[in-house]
Specification:
The protein is of the alpha+beta class. The chain has a single domain, classed as Aminopeptidase (3-Layer(aba) Sandwich). It contains 5 helices and 11 strands; from the N terminus they run βαβαββββαβαβαβββ.
């Protein structure tokens, strides 16, 4: 489902997952003068506002991927370029596309794209999902079936409720210039919450860098820590719960 974007940002949103910042902020976008005009952030405002031009938001599932041409393939190719090529994660790859056991008919992919190019994306999965021995990432880590993630990743038993969803593979590409990176991150977070709410969610579980409290103060987004700090590829991380009904 394609959705028009909000042209004025209603609230700030965070760099919420460790997946979010693999990109090089110094890389300029094409047509710099036009980008400045379309995507300029109004300095001095507590929350950056501006237009996102030709950026579109699409939420895909197995039910509707046929409506969006090659977008899913491009999204998975972009995931490979970030998580395998750049971050060196040991995850599945086929024909230039990255995937894992959670890319199932139970999930949804929220993708921001512009003129045929993927700018960012995130995967959503309800906590009620089940595919073979797998459910969702945090629960499977707690059960001890995921190598590299601790079993104390949550302070409580991982919930299995239709109102709790998990967000993973959150990214913004290096092709997004620093002049509009914050806007794109905010829009992706916003579109993620819309998709999760439409699926019946009131809260989202995710993994963030351990400095999440600093980001929350800076960006005005509130999250509750729900797990012990741990390390992913040398980065201190922690599980948090976002209440998207707020």
């Amino acid at each position: 489902m394609d959705r028009p974007l909000r042209y004025e940002q209603a609230y700030p949103a965070p760099d919420i997952f460790p997946d979010l910042s693999p990109a090089n902020d110094t890389q300029a976008a094409p047509n710099t003068s036009a980008q400045r005009k379309l995507f300029a952030i109004k300095r001095g405002l507590p929350t950056p506002r501006g237009e996102l031009g030709g950026v579109r938001a699409t939420t895909m599932s197995f039910r509707n991927i046929h409506e969006h041409g090659t977008l899913l393939a491009k999204y998975l190719e972009t995931r490979k370029s970030i998580f395998i090529d750049r971050l060196k994660w040991q995850v599945g790859e086929t024909d230039g596309m990255e995937f894992d056991q959670y890319d199932t008919p139970a999930c949804q992919w929220v993708v921001l794209h512009e003129f045929g190019e993927v700018l960012g994306g995130v995967r959503l999965l309800p906590s009620t999902a089940q595919c073979g021995i797998y459910s969702y990432m945090l629960r499977d880590a707690q059960k001890g079936i995921l190598t590299g993630l601790p079993t104390d990743i949550l302070f409580f038993e991982a919930p299995v409720k239709p109102t709790v969803w998990e967000a993973t593979r959150f990214f913004v590409t290096e092709g997004v210039s620093s002049s509009r990176r914050l806007l794109v991150q905010q829009e992706l977070f916003h579109q993620m919450t819309i998709a999760a709410k439409n699926g019946g969610a009131s809260t989202i579980l995710g993994i963030v860098p351990a400095v999440w409290a600093r980001w929350s103060r800076r960006l005005g987004v509130y999250a509750t820590p729900v797990g012990a700090k741990f390390s992913i590829d040398g980065t201190a991380s922690q599980s948090v719960l976002f209440n998207i009904d707020r």
